[in-house]
């Protein structure tokens, strides 16, 4: 068991920030006695509709019809057992998908069936719900094998993301259709509580300090608020002992404090926007659940850190479904507009409200389903009628600087969007990419961060940096003497300075310390500038090495078509026909290109990730190989 917990700590507790700030917002504001006094008792806890009449009063008819239709498709769903062989896929082949398809499929089907029965109330779905509940209760482990590296020890339950998610799904079954299950057998609800108590409640009450994502001394990542939100949900719907119920809710508040303690003062999410929807958004899930369960007597929405944490998501929005995607973040998101709308309202953040309305209009389905955060989905249904009221149109922010994670985002009047960052190479979901940047033109990717591949056993192991998409050699960075950056906290940017004005948005930093020492770098001062006067992006590297290099290269990653037939100019053409010129000194550089691999389990997603366009690497090879020099590159619309 200790080995498993150490493994989880190793993989999921490292983040960008060097230290924890003991803010302890909940702990300083509330006591356990206050929770006991304000918490609505289980018998009176009625957060969601339970009858067709209540559903009809709260949710549009068209949505209710879709909920029932989704349930009807699953009336004959087979809740398959998960074999030991399937559970061992991860350690034997590295594959996570066969187990995930079965496990996630069962939970998604059960959720749809539960909601369909609650909305319709004719008993058509109860038998299928019973089978789903029983099948999941019969599983030896509710999480995924990747988080325990193989078969589970049933005597020592491990709480992970998906075991916590499972608890909230079973809580929903009890809440919405519990009385109907009782009519079949009183043992069904008894089993739900028994399994949830054994697998989630007792471990969280007795050994939560053993989990890396509950560390009091090291920053924690999205695991913490994601699990806290599901622990809250399951506790509120299942725990009958009011004293224990209050103790667990207070435990979730102290647990959420740990995530907030690890954030920097600017509220930046080093995991990227796609993970923000599991991190910052899960903090909101916690706050929303706590408020609803205490008649809003427990609330920290007025804390500046919460407002800053929330604003991160719209400050890293590029255009449409594109978001800044450093580290393992995905470049394309379908943002949950209804959740954003509610979060914005809770914070009185007009920009977030507007983004929520925009996102719900443009990505409606993102708010209506999904494989995770299922209690959030119900809250989404209940807010549809509110969000349909129009407000001012959503306009993305012009620029932002997150000093805590050293990320700069900025726009120019010609439609250019630039993002760049410093930081270090021990971020959560880290790629070795200190000093990387990206450029979009009117919402189209030009210079990109390729993103992550498919998660397998290698993704979170000592072999992680054998994968090309994690290496600095496949980011928009220099390669010195054939060497790239190294992974680890000590490999970081120094002398970092940002400048934002009407004329420019610039990041200056020395990236020398991020590289392998054998690269021989004395200093490598990089400047990434969005020139708002010329509407260009200008990249300058002023470097000194300890001796003349044997090779020196600069990489640019793109999905554009490439024409390098003219010396000194690389012409990049976007799918919509925009032309961007990358200018360089032809006396210093010669150009080559290559295609990173899309073969193998880890690379499958690169076949389709960028609208079926191949990720290409442009490599500029230095011809003069100077020990000390200053090189510049300029990107501008043709």
UniProtKB/TrEMBL annotation:
SUPFAM superfamilies in UniProt: Chondroitin AC/alginate lyase (SSF48230)
GO molecular function, one term: lyase activity
Superkingdom as given in the UniProt entry: Bacteria
GO cellular component: cell envelope
Subcellular location(s) per record: Cell envelope
Boundaries of every Heparinase II/III-like C-terminal domain copy: 410-579
Signal peptide bounds: 1-18
InterPro entries per UniProt: Chondroitin_lyas, Hepar_II_III_C
Keywords for this protein: Signal
Protein name (Swiss-Prot/TrEMBL): Heparinase
Protein source organism: Emticicia aquatilis
